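Q: Convert this sequence to structure tokens.
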Amino acid sequence: MRLIVTRPEEDAGSTAEALATLGHTSLIAPMLRVEPMDFDLPDAAATLVITSANGARHGLARVPDLARRRVFAVGAASAAVARSVGANDLVTGPGDAAGLLPLLLADHATTGAHYCHLTGEDIVFDIAAKLTARGVKAERCTAYRAVQARALPDDVASAIRDGIVGGALFYSARAAHAFERGLEAAGLAAMLEGMTAYAMSKRIAAALSAPWGRVVAAAEPTEAAVLALIGPAGSEGEKA
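A:
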């Protein structure tokens, strides 16, 4: 099945590789472009928190003496990027920001640490605010922003127009909005009847408003759960 990957360019390749192991072909349509932003760490001793791979690429990668800093990563994928940019003292969470919060609270109870959450400009779950509300010193540092694309790539638009795409993957609501705006601008919304939108969460699925044939949401907000929705090549609804 041909599937559209809407993740930023830095992340789309790994998703395409994962789909290839299931026998699917990918079309890359980055609906968000990630740009670094200047930031200053409020406290040189703070334990660092990331809830995305971009938090590692554009946040941790610019932290002095990172190898000596303690880092909490939301899940395995962000932890892998954290290691690649030099993080050594690393705690890996369960894959979602809400699930990371209890680990941070438990850590604070034993260490008394304070925290700095390296985020994008737009966030869904504000860990620093949640910690602060529980009496834990925590701050948020905005290390990057995601700029929405204004149009679909030409090859992706052509494939949709030719009716040879089985679906699209959405890992953020902002990418979903940008994709649907691009579809509308290209006059392709009517082509969605035979396509499935694979969303990483119910919140992202709810952000989709175009006339998709199906919209399905992963059981948990991880790539593995999205891939489980899709299954191996030859599954129901596949297009050539």
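The chain has a mean pLDDT of 94.
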